[in-house]
Specification:
The chain has a domain at 39-79 and 154-241. 31% of the residues lie in helices and 26% in strands. The protein is built from eight helices and 16 strands. The chain has helices at residues 31-34, 46-49, 95-98, 141-169, 201-205, 209-217, 220-230, 233-244, and strands at residues 2-4, 12-14, 20-21, 38-40, 55-58, 67-71, 82-83, 86-87, 102-109, 112-113, 118-122, 131-132, 134-135, 138-139, 173-181, 190-199. The strands form six sheets. Strands 1, 2, 9, 10 and 11 form a five-stranded antiparallel sheet that branches. The protein has a three-stranded antiparallel sheet with strand order 4-6-5. A hairpin with a 2-residue loop joins strand 13 and strand 14. The protein is globular and about 60 Å long.
Length: 248
């Protein structure tokens, strides 16, 4: 059996009822999120995410599949929402970071990906001095909340994958680059982000009736418009960058 860790995780192992766990403290953000300029977002997060972050599409296999992410920084290794080791006050934190150190991992047997996901944990968070989430085989309230978050988030990610597949199949996704130059009084410097995709509005207008109906029926049209509106948040990212007074 092979277990593939998700982005940002180091070494994960299946979570067992007998494990004692060092749970993250209030406001503790996983280390990988401190230096990530994009974090995955799921289907039902769009409305909350679109208030603060640009939502874009990315691909790691040359356009065969796509994923939705919230852009959190301009430069590599930069998260502009981290301030003094904490996430910016009052700003929504994507569930991808909030579920840490747990995850639902992809499992492969004999090279074939299994349909079911396995609840895993970052190995370094297993700690004999930590908290037991089961007592006499019975789940604690805290574990029930964690398990609900994991299962709901995984189901929501699947809806996001379906959305990306449909948008790509309809020829709606196009690559784009964000380019900008900061004023000298704000630190100066030119910057750009590549590797992003967005919905082509002209292609959206040219969809046939059946395609439009399918987008509406699946609740995807609302996500498309939230994505398009969220692109204005690149201005807010640049403002955050300028406030730090450092060129890209």
């Amino acid at each position: 059996m092979q277990i593939s860790p998700p982005f940002g995780y180091r070494e994960i192992v299946p979570f067992l009822k007998t494990h004692k766990v060092r749970l993250p403290g209030s406001g503790e953000i996983p280390e990988f999120a401190h230096r990530s300029n994009a974090l995955p977002v799921s289907h039902t997060e769009f409305q909350l995410v679109a208030r603060e972050y640009p939502i874009v599409f990315t691909t790691g296999d040359g356009g065969k599949t796509f994923a939705t992410v919230a852009v959190t920084g301009i430069a590599d290794g930069e998260n502009l929402f981290m301030q003094d080791g904490a996430w910016a006050s009052g700003v929504y934190i994507p569930a991808y970071a909030r579920r840490y150190p747990f995850c639902m991992a992809v499992v492969r047997r004999d090279g074939a990906e299994q349909a079911d996901r396995l609840i895993c944990i970052e190995k370094t968070f297993i700690d004999e001095g930590g908290e037991a989430l089961f007592a006499a085989g019975k789940a604690s309230k805290k574990w029930s909340d964690i398990e609900n978050l994991l299962s709901e988030y995984e189901a929501d990610l699947q809806r996001s994958r379906e959305m990306c597949s449909i948008l790509a199949d309809y020829g709606l996704l196009e690559p784009f680059t964000m380019q900008a130059t900061l004023a000298e009084k704000k630190g100066g410097g030119s910057m750009h982000i590549t590797g992003m995709y967005r919905v082509n509005e002209k292609n959206l207008e040219n969809l046939n009736a059946a395609q439009l109906k399918n987008l509406l029926r699946k609740g995807l049209m609302a996500r498309v418009y939230l994505h398009l509106l969220s692109l204005e948040n690149f201005r807010r990212l640049l403002d955050r960058k300028a406030e730090r007074g450092t060129p890209a």
